[in-house]
Specification:
single chain; 5 helices; four-stranded mixed beta sheet; alpha+beta
Length: 128
């Protein structure tokens, strides 16, 4: 007898200690469950980051997705995630347009991600 195990093709790695990230991921998780999307969501604090080839600091700086063994980080990870969710596909199409993608990547890389990382560092410093 042969047993086939189901492996999720797309795994989202996120910072569960970030209230903004957690709220956003909760929305994506709900949409994925409602749509039956083949997505899993892993809090980076519960993950084996070595399997992602990421340090804890690298993992907290960006959103990461692993799909079929390939790791996609930053804004391209959002595009991939949005493409997997029926209610978000329009957003993926919109922000895949060359000029909008460049603006969104700049905004994510130079504003959103650094701001969220700085907030994470302040929360971590407050725990010690």
């Amino acid at each position: 007898m042969r047993y086939v195990t189901h492996m999720t093709q797309t795994e989202v790695l996120y910072n569960g200690r970030c209230p903004i990230c957690s709220a956003e991921i909760a929305q994506y998780r709900k949409q994925a469950n409602d749509a039956g999307a083949d997505l899993s969501f892993t809090d980076l604090h519960d993950a084996d980051l070595s399997s992602w080839n990421l340090s804890p600091e690298q993992a907290t700086r960006r959103l990461h997705i692993r799909q079929q063994g390939q790791i996609i980080s930053g804004f391209p990870a959002f595009l991939l995630l949005w493409r997997e969710l029926p209610r978000m596909r329009w957003l993926a199409r919109l922000f895949s347009l060359p000029m909008l993608r460049q603006i969104a990547e700049l905004g994510y890389n130079h504003v959103a991600a650094p701001m969220l990382y700085a907030m994470h560092r302040r929360r971590q410093a407050g725990r010690h």
